[in-house]
Write a structure and sequence with these properties.
The protein has 2 domains: 38 residues; 55 residues, IHF-like DNA-binding proteins (HU Protein, Chain A, Irregular). Strand 3 and strand 4 form a beta hairpin. The two termini are 19 Å apart. The strands form 2 sheets. It has a 3-stranded antiparallel sheet. A two-stranded antiparallel sheet has the order 3-4. By secondary structure, it is of the alpha+beta class. Helix content is 45%, strand content 29%. It is built from 3 helices and 5 strands; from the N terminus they run ααβββββα.
Length: 93
Amino acid sequence: MNKLEMISALKKEANISKSEAARVVQIFFDSMADALVEDERIEIRGLCSFFIKNYKSYTGRNPKTGEKVQISPKKLPFFKCGKELRERVNKTA
């Protein structure tokens, strides 16, 4: 499912206009992104959680040349599946 399909599903289920559904989805995504930028954990019980992992600086290698390269510290978002979602997905398998 992509963003457009999500908007269509919300429009149909909530019986609202496409522009209203698009706004709701955009607010949801923007709120999640803003929370992650602030290093906040997002937890949707039974579905999933999102959190930020911090990585320190380290020395890596350029695979083409083999030369050493200093990798800067970085933050990456992570997704963790909830128990109920995991069970629901495995039930259909």
